[in-house]
């Protein structure tokens, strides 16, 4: 009797699901040893070794062409070669922790200590603990709640700390919003970028002539995904596909949206807003990723400020201590405009965000170019405070004007400039 051919885990299941006579088996979520051996072979010996192991293990080709190319392109050598002179006595002591692998499918993660500033950040009082839990979903097809405008409104109304985890960041207008928040309003901004998107971000900075001198209150850092290690010590890192924004420790914006022009105008995305206890999960995830991140631009060792307790004024006096009215809460909520929450296209689990600690009002916006003034005429005094609907027009200025206002590019001085109209998408 001939010996039956060995079948890999995936191939055997494929044959079972194709057959009408085999009863459904209990779901098996254990690791696939054949797949691990094939991945190690691809990482060490290339495509030929990969196909050879698949044939020996009787397994199907479980990697797409894009995945196989990514693994080969991202492969890295072990940090140090094994100490062959030490023999068996040297053993694990001759290697560092990053080159010692357990041989399991998912290598053991490092248990390094977090920086001291993260411990102080974790012990600080978080306003989201006093908020009512809610979830609101926005889709790209909802023209009354444009996702890009919601993100920009969130940035422009942040008053203390803005935390961003992003895979790709090439949108110049959103970058101007962040620069304005950090340089004009004193908001601390910490951006964690996927390692693969750092080159594109630096390319954008070179185009608009942004350097470290313009990032006085901003920390740009890079972070990688999980690390896959072969038994030989070769390894490759995954990507960061998480994307979320934490504003003043009060709410989170998370979804598929990336900071690119295509995502803002062409690609269809989804964006969710979370308040309450759900924010704590994003807070912990960010601190975990920050501990393994590396500085790219801006502040190298930032000190995250603690959130201002409700009813207390900060030392610099930038925020008011008497923030308890409904108008103050509306000013800190980027979704409290005429378009947010007032149209049936917005899906919400909770009808309201609940009573929370009110945010402090923002300082008056910096003076902007007045389009109705001629080059020689004097400005007209305002008859009164501007309407609330138009209190955020600075976020929708053309990119050139935003860069001029921040002093990042030389200001143009034409003899005559036509009337300009800023029309936000409310």
From TrEMBL:
GO terms for molecular function: identical protein binding; phosphatidylinositol 3-kinase regulatory subunit binding; protein kinase binding. It is found in: Cytoplasm. GO terms for biological process: cell population proliferation; epidermal growth factor receptor signaling pathway; positive regulation of adipose tissue development; white fat cell differentiation. InterPro entries: FAM83, SACK1. The keyword Cytoplasm applies. One of its GO terms (cellular component) is mitochondrion. Residues 358-369 have a biased composition (Pro residues). Residues 320-332 have a biased composition (Low complexity). This is Family with sequence similarity 83 member A. The gene is FAM83A.
């Amino acid at each position: 009797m001939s010996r039956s051919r060995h079948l890999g885990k995936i191939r055997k299941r494929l044959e079972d699901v194709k057959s009408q006579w085999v009863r459904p088996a209990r779901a098996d979520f254990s690791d696939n040893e054949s797949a691990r051996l094939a991945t190690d072979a691809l990482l060490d010996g290339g495509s030929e070794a990969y196909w050879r192991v698949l044939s020996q293990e009787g397994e199907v080709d479980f990697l797409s062409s894009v995945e196989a190319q990514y693994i080969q392109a991202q492969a890295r050598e072990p940090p140090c070669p094994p100490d062959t002179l030490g023999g068996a006595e040297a053993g694990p002591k001759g290697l560092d922790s990053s080159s010692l692998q357990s041989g399991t499918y998912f290598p053991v993660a490092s248990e390094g200590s977090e920086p001291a500033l993260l411990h102080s950040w974790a012990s600080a009082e978080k306003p989201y603990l006093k908020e009512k839990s809610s979830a609101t979903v926005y889709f790209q097809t909802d023209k009354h709640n444009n996702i890009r405008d919601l993100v920009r409104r969130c940035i422009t109304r942040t008053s203390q700390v803005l935390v961003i985890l992003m895979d790709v960041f090439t949108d110049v207008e959103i970058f101007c919003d962040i620069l304005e928040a950090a340089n004009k309003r004193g908001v601390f901004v910490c951006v964690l970028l996927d390692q693969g998107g750092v080159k594109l971000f630096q390319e954008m900075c070179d185009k608009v002539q942004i350097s470290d001198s313009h990032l006085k209150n901003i920390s740009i850092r890079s972070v990688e995904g999980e690390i896959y290690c072969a038994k030989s010590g070769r390894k490759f890192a995954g990507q960061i596909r998480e994307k979320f924004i934490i504003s003043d420790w009060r709410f989170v914006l998370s979804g598929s949206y990336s900071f690119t022009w295509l995502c803002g105008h062409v690609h269809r995305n989804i964006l969710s807003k979370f308040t309450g206890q759900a924010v704590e999960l994003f807070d912990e995830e960010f601190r975990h990723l920050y501990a393994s991140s590396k500085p790219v631009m801006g502040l190298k060792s930032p000190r995250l400020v603690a959130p201002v307790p409700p009813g207390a004024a900060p030392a610099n006096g930038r925020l008011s201590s008497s923030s308890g009215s409904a108008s103050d809460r509306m000013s800190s909520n980027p979704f409290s405009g005429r378009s947010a929450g007032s149209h049936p296209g917005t899906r919400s689990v909770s009808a309201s965000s609940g009573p929370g600690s009110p945010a402090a009002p923002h300082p008056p916006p910096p003076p902007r170019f007045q389009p109705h003034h001629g080059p020689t005429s004097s400005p007209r005094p305002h008859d009164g405070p501007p309407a609330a609907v138009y209190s955020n027009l600075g976020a929708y200025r053309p990119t050139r004007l935003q860069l001029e206002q921040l002093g990042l590019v030389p200001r143009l001085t034409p003899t005559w400039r036509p009337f300009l109209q800023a029309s936000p998408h409310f």
